[in-house]
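Q: My collaborator sent me two sequences in one message, no labels, and asked for predicted structures for both. Can we handle them in order? The first one she listed is below.
A: Yes, handling them in the order given. First sequence, followed by its structure tokens:
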Amino acid sequence: MRAIAGRVIALLPILFGLSVLSFGLLAMVPGDPVTAMLGLEASPEAIATLRAKFALDEPLPLRFLAWFGNVLQGDLGRSIQTGRPVLEMVVTALGPTLLLAGAALLVSLAIALPAGIIAATRRNRPADFAVSLVALCGLSLPSFWLGILLILTLSIAWPIFPASGYAPLLSDPWTALRHLVLPAATLGVALAGASMRMTRSAMLEVLPADYIRTAHAKGLGPRRVVWRHALRNALIPIVTLVGIQLGQLLGGVVVTETVFAWPGIGKLVVDAIFARDYPVVQGAILVTATLFVLLNLMTDLICLALDPRQRGGA
């Protein structure tokens, strides 16, 4: 428990450092959000009024302290472009991103786990080489190219799935799932390559172990030995990789969300950057960074639960 408490406490300086870094880097970006909003022909009085409204005329340290003080109270500010609360905009965009990330992980694991196990149990055989080649292709294919290829084939040549757009899952599940298939497949195939290679490596380390030979000697079937005994003990590095991948997905897969017009965090940040809407960018970065750090903590806890040898130290 001390180790877990220490990891939780260690999150605080990490999040503070991320907030300082994101605020400082955005302040160095060229361009004036007020000018981008009002246009080059706006009067100096209008520009000065709007800059004072959003405290952009204050020194940078004072602006950061005011912003961070509001963050501690749950207020991420308001959008310069729309005037909406940033937290509301980020939470609205987070729902589609969570849905897409979860579906992409399911696609990835559905491909990677069986393929990695096949490659490990048939090491240096044709099946191993074939699976490794497919994994290499998945790692090498750019996501935007794969997404466009899926649109051309499954939306235009054969109009099976919509080419873009989003529908809420709770209000219209069938339409939502049809819109989800192509972007989830695009991301899932890309993630499956790395997950498959990790599954293969972890299984190759576990299969020669003594307890696996003992399980075979007891007369257990190969399938039960592999799935119930070997895979369970090989899950720690796989879970770690999946946690990192999920954090990256929650951070916003900008290219995929742009290609499929998916209204997630990535698209929100890109639109805010082009509009010089810095409060939205800062809020999105802070929320996604917090989620990423919490996911890493959750991954550590799952690894502790999977590995009994580490529980004593926790």
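Q: And the one she listed second?
A: Here it is, processed independently of the first:
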Amino acid sequence: MSSIPAPARNLHYPESDGKPIGETDLHRDLMTDLIFALKWFLANVQAYVAGNLFVYFEEGNPRAVVAPDVFVILGAEQRRRRTYKVWAEDGRVPAVVIEITSKKTSAADRDIKPALYARLGVQEYFLFDPYGDYLAPRLQGYRLANGAYAPIDTFPLRCAVLGLELRAEDQALRLYNAATGERLPISDEEVLARRAAEAARHEAEIRLLAETEARLAAEARAAEQSARASAAEAEVARLRALLGRKDG
């Protein structure tokens, strides 16, 4: 007798494979920095930015899964998820994927994932090798055309879907607003910028307070001098009136 497959609703979709988020501190930091920068840039856009999260793309098949290092799904709500199931999200798939290549992932990043991402409909696929050990050049980009990826040959490398430029700077991958040339901040820079803005605001408030106190003091001195002058004038007038009565 043939076995009856379990209903899809009873299938288990794991949330983790037990592997670390990145092979090195640098890989992990690059992922978190890129995710922060993309969330910052897309704060006013309906988009889901995440990374190292299981993306299941076939209902009823827990083996049909991929976990991009960094990805953006346009039109999806930015909220915390345990996994991402394409069929539960109106069929939305990542529009952009960034893989941080390492010794463990370099072969899959080059030879396996491109075909999978193309089949899923990922519009742009980027690879970055922070140490330059496995990719030449160490930053590469591909755009989907007629069901297959074609290299992006612009410099700086441009993500047309998001309107961003990708640049390798030392061992970091930094994102720039293609329209303004502004470099997107990472979390540490955002904290420093916020602290600097708070310090500047505090200094401005102190200056304003000092200026206000100086103005009020000057107004008080002017009022006191005016009162004294008025009193003196009144006294002179009184004395003149008194002398006038005596002369009369």
